[in-house]
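User: Predict the full complex structure for these chains.
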Amino acid sequence: GIQVEQSPPDLILQEGANSTLRCNFSDSVNNLQWFHQNPWGQLINLFYIPSGTKQNGRLSATTVATERYSLLYISSSQTTDSGVYFCAVADGNFNKFYFGSGTKLNVKP
Amino acid sequence: GAVVSQHPSWVICKSGTSVKIECRSLDFQATTMFWYRQFPKQSLMLMATSNEGSKATYEQGVEKDKFLINHASLTLSTLTVTSAHPEDSSFYICSARSPERTGGTGTEAFFGQGTRLTVV
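Assistant: Here is the predicted structure of the two-chain assembly.
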């Protein structure tokens, strides 16, 4: 199956700081998504981004499919951004959807 | 609002009993649904993939007789944990996808809110 690696595993920020989370994957994919898992376990869809760049408020994401990586940018971080961020990819037939190990973000006031 | 609804959100059951978890797509027909399990402080582990009207495809190491999956309609999939034991206690999450929901040829996946199962 496709291997998905996320870095860093843990990240501590001061409120207001910017950060970049990375997702590397081992094979070509036809779907890549970023999620934020809240303290209750709910996975919040952030971006559906198999390629290109998207922005949504303070968040933006870029996927370079040919180089097999994606980046999630968080600007002017807030304490409510704390939680675990997951990257997930699907293979060409979308028969399986694989998750990375996540980045645990802690934004301190 | 939520596009995938999972029920119940939490359940406590006695060892040896069975528990059914429902996953519904609310505003689209889900051709494929996925079931995941998540242990504390770990990532999501894919358990099985189900397509409407056909048998589920289980990941290696997942007991199909213990975790029964039924995708009876395009809006409902169920996971039944049979003869539950304390080691089955975990967070279970379902996901649904549909090109119709994403638009074009997209295949965005949407997740339910999860079910926390505790077996005592």
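The mean pLDDT of chain A is 93.
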